[in-house]
Amino acid sequence: MELDLRYQANLSHEFIDLFNEVSWSARTEYNQFITTASKPFKDEIDWWVESPASRNTYASSLFHYFCVAKFILKMIDNEYFNPVNAEKIIIVDSWALKGIIEEIFNNSNISNVIVDFRPKFNIRIKRLLRKYFYYELVFVKRLLQYCIARLSKKLEITQKLSNTIVLIDTFVSKPYLNHDRWYGSLWDHLDESQKSNVFFAPTIVNTSIKDFLLVYRSLRNSSRNNFIKDDFISIGDLVFAYTHKKRVKNLQIKQISLNGVDTSSLIIEDIEYFRDISSLIEALLTYRFIAGLADANIKIRLSIDWFEGHALDKAWNLGIKRFHEHTERMGYRAFFKSYPQYLCTYPIQIERDVGVLPDIFAVQGKDSIEDVKEFLPDLNVITIPAFKAEHVWEQDIEQSLSEMKQILVTLPVSIATSVMIVDTLINVYLNKKYDDSALIYVLKPHPTNRIKDITRRLKTSLPDAFIFTHQKSFPDLLRKSSILITEASSTCVEALACGVSVIIIENPHGITYDPLPENIPQELFRKTKTLDEINNAMFSFLNESESLKERKRLLSKQVREGYFEPVTKDGIVNFLRMN
Fold first, then answer.
1. Whether the Cβ atoms of residue 37 and residue 52 lie closer than 8 Å to each other
2. FRET partner for 137 with CA separation of 20 to 30 A, picked from 94, 241, 301, 385?
3. Better pLDDT: 133 or 360
4. What gap in Å lies between CA 368 and CA 345, rounded to an integer?
5. What does the CA dihedral 469, 471, 474, 478 come to, rounded to 10 degrees?
């Protein structure tokens, strides 16, 4: 029997529940695993921008491999590998993990299991490219970006500021030049006095080389105050970012034991094959940009970090601490509730000790406070307005619970998961147990993904009732919908607050990134895995009684009040720490 434990492989139904159970219970131990690895490098910026220290489970396979090792130990406890005469094969795509599993079996006197190192061909090619070419390609692109930024510069002098400022970390891409996807209506609610002292520091993401000049010109001509990072860094800073690949080799990872087996090789391998080199280089340049602001004698009263716990967040906060020691650091955590396995969004003690965390966290509603404090119960957390989701207070819940037949499908960042969801819904549609010819499925890709990258991987063609939308405004789509379907997207909480029922399609072959808080009433959503479960959920939501609709209106209002603080003048003052 073969058991495929490769990263993003399809785990058989026989083991998926146990693997999810293990991944949930491994969260605290994994945090300690990273803490142990981090202690020798507490003062090293080169460590804190690396993959293991970020704990970003979307960008790295390290947590998956850690869970696989724990899963094997659990299966040994459950005597899965008995009797000894029944040979089994475990497939992995990590050489380090292969060695760890083999040592676990040796220590347990299990000899009837073959651990087969079998990475897919495309994975082998990508690893070779990352190891020998990809770093250079990413750096050259960033160098070109720097040159284009300099070409777009109008003046050679830095704007002189008479007061201390509020510096806000944000992002920008070509599709969002005129629409703030990250801070929503914040700027529109500031008065002229507040605007004069608020400056954004955008990181350009998901933008091709040919569009860099357009983006930079837009930023420089914007009505908002923007600091262009490239104006405050030099060629020397770019060299500093590039030579990280040499410096990181000097970080000697110490042994870390898991049930008597050294697992440090997983960290070494993760650093060697880390795929998100662009974020790593940008984090180092952000660190030097913060230093450049200090060199330009720009005084920062408050820094606001768009916090997801990534390498860039750690570099931002460490830079503020080291180069602007009197600046208050805030982390704006826009999640209503983070996915439990998205560990980088949950602060831990060593991150606070080192200074890569903000001093205070801001969340959009009182019911989000406990989530961010899971591993740091004494974390300083405040509630600020839900600028990014102000639309929930404008949505008519009565209309959402009416007879509208549009089904909105918000797809996650993972292309593979997006394809799985669309393929699943096509099967649901073709095998539905009810007749509703008016039903329309509107598919909204994640903003970082292209429609063609999803459609070309679908197993079957799209039925006429399925429409990919280019609409960027989620609120406009939501107003026309009665059901929202998703996997790992915070849009589901916004939908619930607007009276729109939610169907979560769980990953049937791996870890599910659950986006729903535990206190959401069961009447408002369904979690599904099979076609029958999705069909039943659809039928149930489309055929609700009037009494149930009335109860759901009341429950939706509770969600709205718990997770979405209204925008008020006092809330803005609290956010900008103007008390």
1. yes
2. 94
3. 360
4. 13
5. -60
Token pair belonging to 365: 């509603």
Answer yes or no: is pLDDT of 311 > 70: yes
Q: Residue 157 has what pLDDT? A: 44
- Sequence-distant (6+) residues with CB within 8 A of 538 are 407, 428, 432, 434, 483, 503
> Among 251, 337, 277, which residue's Cα sits nearest to residue 60?
277
3-class DSSP string for 137-186: HHHHHHHHHHHHHHHCCCCCCCCCCCCCEEEEEEEECHHHCCCCCCCCCH
CA distance 74 to 25: 11
* pLDDT tens, residue by residue, 526-556: 999 888 899 899 888 988 888 998 899 899 9
How confident is the model over 544-572, as a mean pLDDT? 91
Q: Which pLDDT does position 85 carry in this prediction?
A: 62
Q: How far is CA 343 from CA 2, 62, 338, 396, in A?
A: 30, 12, 9, 35
How far is it, in rounded angstroms, from Cα 499 to Cα 553?
A: 6
Here the tokens at position 436 are 């509703």
Residue with tokens 């058989």: 12
Tokens standing for residue 4: 């495929």
Please give the structure tokens belonging to residue 356: 């890569």
Annotate 487-528 with DSSP letters as a single string: SS-THHHHHHHTT-EEEEE--TTS-----S-TTS-GGGEEEE
Structure tokens at 413: 């960042």
| Residue 300 predicted with pLDDT over 90 | yes
Burial classification of residue 437, based on how many CB atoms lie within 10 Å of its CB (0-12 exposed, 13-18 middle, 19 or more buried): exposed
Q: Which token pair is 212?
A: 């860099």
User: Does residue 83 have a cis bond before it (omega within 30 degrees)?
Assistant: yes
pLDDT higher than 80, residue 127: no
Ranking 70-74, 120-124, 276-280, 342-346 by mean pLDDT, the lowest is 120-124
- Judging by DSSP bridges, how do beta strands 481-486 and 406-410 pair with one another? parallel
Burial tier of 221 (Cβ tally within 10 Å: 0-12, 13-18, 19+):
exposed
Q: How many CB atoms lie within 10 A of CB 449?
A: 16
pTM, two decimal places = 0.90
- Taking each helix axis as running N to C, give the angle between helix 277-295 and helix 235-242, from 0 to 180 degrees, rounded to the nearest 10: 140
**Residue 327 in tokens:** 């600046």
Provide the token pair at 169: 């970390």
Q: Provide the terminal-to-terminal Cα distance of the chain, rounded to the nearest Å.
A: 65
